[in-house]
Write a structure and sequence with these properties.
Bound molecules: 2-acetamido-2-deoxy-beta-D-glucopyranose
Largest sheet: 7 strands, antiparallel
Structural class: mainly beta
CATH architecture of the largest domain: Sandwich
Number of helices: 6
Distance between the termini: 48 Å
CATH topology of the largest domain: Jelly Rolls
Length: 412
């Protein structure tokens, strides 16, 4: 023990952050539901994982014999960048994206003008074969066997194609220096396979998949958000409550939090409301050693109950939390408990939620403290929470997908 302590102290003095590894080795792991992750080394995650972005592909235009590309894409994310390409700088770009669940093509057409054309629905979680082909001054995007979108090329873009610049393609995000402002949130929780980028070598993508497991996708997915047990997401509470914050003045204002989840490890914070001083005002946690679901208000225990017997059975769990004038209601499945809430506590919750700088964390505390491992779908004020709206998000949390083995829709 002494030697271990010395070792830890040595690491800390070296400035190495050892906390996550220590937690895993020193605490017995409360694994509760075993499942095979089955990430495939042929499926590329398009988002930015904890190892960073998908690498950028670059080709000399003079060496290209084709501008045609194709790949298969699968996503449940309603918004994000599929790929962004430019030739000879940012004036000539082509963006393939998803907006409100539909395919969207945005191209520069000279003079800083942007042409936006929308296509068919794409975010249904099924594999879609997408081809981008150039043909006589136009670019056609095919989905399956149908031509979904055709856009005319600008004169500038046609000139660039016979110049001696570089073609750059970034998958799942913008180019770091692209300077283009898009009316969309770039990260796309999606997967790609069977790609062919401008008929050129793209082995850097295969190498990425070989080297980093976190950049691989699961064979099959289900809706929800996947937390790995080491990271969380944090939102500005105002951004999360959106329009309903306007009604915070109302005397009968209520807060409603609904969680559907399937746990892999039976522990971790599910929901936390933090004030501007970083104090935990309201928190709901799967408390591991005591095996209790715990609700804390202003740091003190307000309510607790033993884990539901089905928590580790692989069945979906449904939790509800409601703050109303004079009452706090918590529901687990079909059982409900109603507690008295003082006016002071009710006003405090209202005040903290409407204060700029207050935050809501899901799936763990700030810096990944006591993180949840499993699939979670949160609804706040009746609206599914979009993790892409988070201020801070651990790279390996998947915003819009869970492995199919943790499908939270089971039993619903
Ligand atoms: C991508 O992830 C890396 C590592 O987690 C992080 O440093 C970087 O800021 C992220 N980039 C974006 C655009 O989110
Ligand atoms: C999105 O796709 C659906 C189905 O393919 C289509 O009916 C709808 O018009 C599209 N929306 C837009 C904005 O193009
Ligand atoms: C929020 O409120 C504004 C104005 O009241 C409205 O235009 C907008 O659609 C609302 N947004 C959502 C997400 O409900």
């Amino acid at each position: 023990m002494f030697a271990l302590k010395r070792f830890v102290v040595a690491l800390l003095t070296l400035g190495i952050w050892v906390h996550p590894t220590l937690e895993r080795t020193l605490e017995p792991s409360p694994e509760c539901y075993y499942f095979v992750e089955s990430r495939s080394s042929h499926l590329l995650y398009t988002g930015n994982s904890s190892v960073g972005n998908v690498p950028i592909l670059e080709y000399k235009v003079t060496e290209l014999t084709s501008f045609d590309s194709e790949f298969e894409l699968r996503t449940l994310d309603p918004e994000g960048v599929i790929f962004f390409g430019d030739i000879g700088g940012q004036q000539n770009y082509f963006l393939l994206a998803v907006i409100q669940g539909n395919l969207s093509v945005q191209t520069s057409c000279g003079d800083g003008q942007v042409l936006v054309t929308s296509g068919p629905k794409i975010s249904d979680g099924e594999w879609k074969k997408i081809a981008v082909m150039k043909h006589e001054g136009a670019v056609a995007v095919r989905v399956g066997s149908e031509t979904a979108v055709t856009v005319q090329q600008s004169a500038e873009s046609q000139r660039a194609e016979i110049g001696n610049g570089m073609l750059r393609i970034s998958i799942g995000g913008l180019l770091p220096d692209s300077g283009v402002t898009l009316g969309l949130n770039p990260p796309l929780d999606g997967c790609m396979r069977s790609w062919d980028w401008v008929r050129q070598d793209s082995s850097i993508l295969e190498r990425t998949l070989q080297d980093s497991k976190v950049q691989r996708c699961w064979e099959h997915i289900a809706p929800g958000s996947y937390f790995t047990g080491v990271g969380s997401v944090g939102f500005s509470s105002l951004a999360l409550l959106g329009n309903s914050s306007a009604e915070l003045d109302g005397a009968d204002w209520t807060l409603s939090v609904e969680l559907a989840l399937r746990t892999v490890s039976a522990r971790g914070f599910l929901f936390i409301l933090l004030d501007t001083q970083n104090d935990y005002i309201l928190s709901l946690k799967l408390n591991h050693p005591s095996q209790e679901l715990m609700l804390r208000l202003r740091g003190t225990l307000f309510w607790s109950r033993s884990y539901p017997q089905t928590l580790c059975s692989g069945e979906s769990q449904f939790l509800q939390l409601q703050v109303r004038p004079g009452q706090l209601v918590i529901g687990m499945g079909i059982t409900k408990a109603t507690m008295r809430l003082t006016d002071g506590d009710y006003e405090l919750l209202k005040r903290v939620l409407s204060q700029p700088g207050s935050r809501v964390y899901l799936g763990g505390g700030p810096a990944g403290l006591s993180s949840f491992h499993g699939c979670l779908q949160a609804k706040i004020q009746g609206v599914n929470v979009d993790l892409d709206l988070a201020e801070v998000k651990h790279g390996d949390v998947r915003s819009h997908s869970c492995p199919a083995a943790l499908d939270i829709r089971d039993g619903k």
